[in-house]
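Project standup — Tuesday

K.O.: blocked on the structure for the chain from last sprint. Re-posting the sequence here as requested.
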Amino acid sequence: MEESRVLDEAQVTGHRVRSTDVLVVLLLLVVAARFLLPGAFDAPVVQAWSTVFVAVCLQALPFLVLGVLLSAAISTLVPASFFARALPRRPALAVPVAGAAGLVLPGCECASVPVAGSLVRRGITPAAALAFLLSAPAINPVVLVATAVAFPDAPAVVVARFVASLAVALVMGWLWTAFGRGEWLRLPTRHEHPPGDGRAAAFLGVVQHDLVHAGGFLVVGGLTAAALNVLVPRAWLDALAAEPVLAVLVLAALAVLLAICSEADAFVAAGLTSFSLTARLAFLVVGPAVDVKLVALQAGTFRSRFAVRFAPVTFGVAVASASLVGWWLL
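H.V.: unblocked you, prediction finished:
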């Protein structure tokens, strides 16, 4: 009976379509097109598009890998009791401490959701866990250094991103303290590694999972940024960029839809040169706080009743924070 069950599981796993399978198929299609349609790749538009795409990906990849490694180390090597000892018991005080912890305990937004769920399950006040969920992928050293590299002529963008993103984390934590309800937040189920697996195996598993997923989002972001720069008529972008409010809202919505990893989004934003620094700041602040993949992760971890309330409010707070900080610093 046990052998039959294992065989059934293996058969189900064998028929599952993975992101790496999709990537291999896409690469094969590109190679085939290169031989079947050689002239198409010589067009100036295609060459310009490929140049932008490769530049975005190559610039962002080292920071993406470093961020994934740090995130995996945090989630697999830091003792669970560390957070309970470090945070104050009062929620109003625990929120800023947890928000500031994102500066020294980095993680991508994909990893921040299960980490926040684990904190809640271990008895940490939800307000502090949510503040950490929002701050860790937005103000950690990898993200700030990547932003500095992406905007070498505008160092104020780094400061603005830090201030605006931390403000979002703190405001949302305090809002949950004031208005949040326990029935909206379902404690996540604990997922243990098999007893035979050590920390090294758990670390490698997290790295492999996060790198494949985050790398896929980076590719999508690079494709979109290249398409916006090459295929969209410059007059359209100039028209949007000329309207300050509309430009902020457009890039904020784009950040939600693209769902780019926070270690790589600065390079995509840097390529959107038609838009103001404030509009691009909105892209950088909204992305790690609320996007389509985060909403799905939050709904699966904490229940959809939480996600449908938390995500829209976070979006509004992030847009307002980016706009105010951009007006102040940029």
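K.O.: great, moving the ticket to review. The radius of gyration is 21 Å. The chain is about 75% helix and 0% strand.
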